[in-house]
């Protein structure tokens, strides 16, 4: 079979050196640094930065992992929309005539080498003044000189380094509006704490003379003055700092429920009321130091809890996953248009791996679309001209032209996202255990206070009043209220360090009671970073492998790039007459031999007989032919995450396990050893099917943990007691937590840790109750002194904080979670 000659004068490939950083063909002579060839000074400088900081392990992660800086000029049209001043004002944190400041999300950041490289951008581009990376959030804060470099060039630089920013509709929200919302949400709590701290410190100063003076040593006029000053300092604490607790208690009483805020408010009211009575009547100096200290410590716990969760962003809407702009073609010209401004009837161009932003009608002859994000089906589907492409699919391979048939807000993806079934209510700030205990605690405290008052009422009415108020004061469950936020806050901080982010304390409590775990497959158990490629047919000879590798190097199709990783490196082979048909295959001549790669139909169209080809298998298959022979095909399968076997072996001992997959059942036999029962695996499940399955388990009395990714799992994540999204990029809005995909195998130890945390909370409750028993034993006698009250209340708070923090860290150490 001869070599077709439709395409001639192909470029020579394989005889020149390849760039050590990006893999591009180097010029002759190449730029050399450290004995290694580079295609340009940019790639050389990147290597120098990493080498100077002993971070060349970056190149151990993947051969030639960088992207050529020269490619920035080739791809510049992609970011042309960033020249729009209106969009720049929305994206920038700050901008004037001299400098610009912007925060960009870089999902590709994965190691210390990335951080060092990005924080040395000024060495690659003098217009970059400062770069600071937040590794946990995968964000970079950049300051650049406007006169030397524009926002578009900044983004092109990052994309050229392999760190293309995630610029979406969500990121285009006015930055000042988002910052104002965050400030309003946290400023009030900080101000209340500041007022309480200031007043507490000064009240303690005014109280020291009485504590330290002996009987009759402090003049009455000074005693009155100090007491009056304490009352004045306590007023802003009562009417401003404590309003959050008093207001919450009032709301719970209106709803005829008892939460932890009720006994705390009783203690606050009794402490302030008795102190004010003693000062005004001249019978004592009151307990304003204890009152202000109580509010101060309670607010510290609340602020600690809020700061713990402030950095997590769970509730994202569909705009977080759409590109900010899309290429629109009009009259033979192409321009970037914000997705929000797309109109029905416009023709758009969607490139490889880009998300289809609205329901469209395909114009191109063929298009390959991956709908796994919406449906869970891992197999890309082929679509032909005239077919409808739904929003949320990703174009795989060659770019496709399509016409918008529905507005973005009316697309299938948007409707699915906004459906009520895919929304999850916020959890309570204090977990259910605290509120359950508080109901009994409040009743017990009131009963003891009344009995103490009745006991002393017959002999001394004044002592009876003193005993009643003393019980309410000393039994205020401040330590009980502090134990939960500090235990849970410490636990959540420790888990966040290892890639497991929980939304609020209630998630920890619910995780501790889980008895059933349901897994999604695609994107959860499997990884999007790799796929297995198995060759079926006669074994390929080494020369055939080299010929195939030389041909595949010219293709940008994802499957071609995957196959290239499975084949040996090639040099010195001449590729001519290269031709690639979108969605079908490629052909070319390599070293005098015809090479075909593509679908079964593609090989037959290029001269091979149908009888010479094996039947097409189930799943993605890529046929190959070298010369006149077709030795077989590559069959692609799912690549499962590391240590999956150990994960299921550990979980099966304590939990019932199920699988829900939107994919077909071709992986059933491969997964069966992990689930041990085929009736526990369900395939071809729609988003609604998954939600209903979880609901059925719950009707059976099960506490369900759902682990998935993507929008197709959102309903099940919402329905379950706890929904955890495994994240390699995007994650679901309905999740209670986010688990780094690389830490999925560590889930058993995380579950053991949260159970240990509940034991810590229980122990802290016991410690708090012990303090209350000791305090109440003094209070019922009606002889509680101001000094003893001032010591016991702060001591109980500080000791509970110390105990819960240390015990939680010890529990983390025991299960192997680093401190």
Keywords:
single chain, 819 residues, alpha+beta, Alpha-Beta Plaits, Calcium-transporting ATPase, cytoplasmic transduction domain A, 7-stranded mixed sheet, 6-stranded antiparallel sheet, 28 strands, 44% helix, disordered N terminus
Task: Please give the structural blueprint.
Elements: E1 31-33, E2 36-38, H1 41-52, H2 58-61, H3 71-74, H4 85-91, E3 94-95, E4 99-105, H5 112-118, E5 128-134, E6 139-145, H6 151-160, H7 175-212, H8 220-241, H9 243-254, H10 261-281, H11 288-310, E7 325-330, E8 333-338, E9 347-350, E10 360-362, E11 366-370, H12 372-375, E12 381-384, E13 388-389, E14 394-395, E15 400-404, H13 412-418, H14 432-457, H15 461-474, H16 478-497, E16 500-502, H17 505-512, E17 516-520, E18 526-537, H18 542-552, H19 558-566, E19 575-581, E20 585-590, E21 593-598, H20 600-605, E22 621-626, E23 629-640, H21 644-651, E24 656-660, H22 668-675, E25 681-682, H23 687-699, E26 704-708, H24 714-719, E27 722-727, E28 737-740, H25 747-779, H26 786-814
Parallel strand pairs: 17-24, 17-26, 24-25, 26-27, 27-28
Antiparallel strand pairs: 1-2, 3-4, 4-6, 5-6, 7-8, 7-9, 9-15, 10-13, 10-15, 11-12, 11-14, 16-28, 18-23, 19-20, 20-21, 21-22, 22-23
Helix pairs in contact: 7-8, 7-11, 8-10, 8-11, 9-10, 10-11, 10-15, 11-16, 11-26, 14-15, 15-25, 16-25, 16-26, 17-25, 25-26
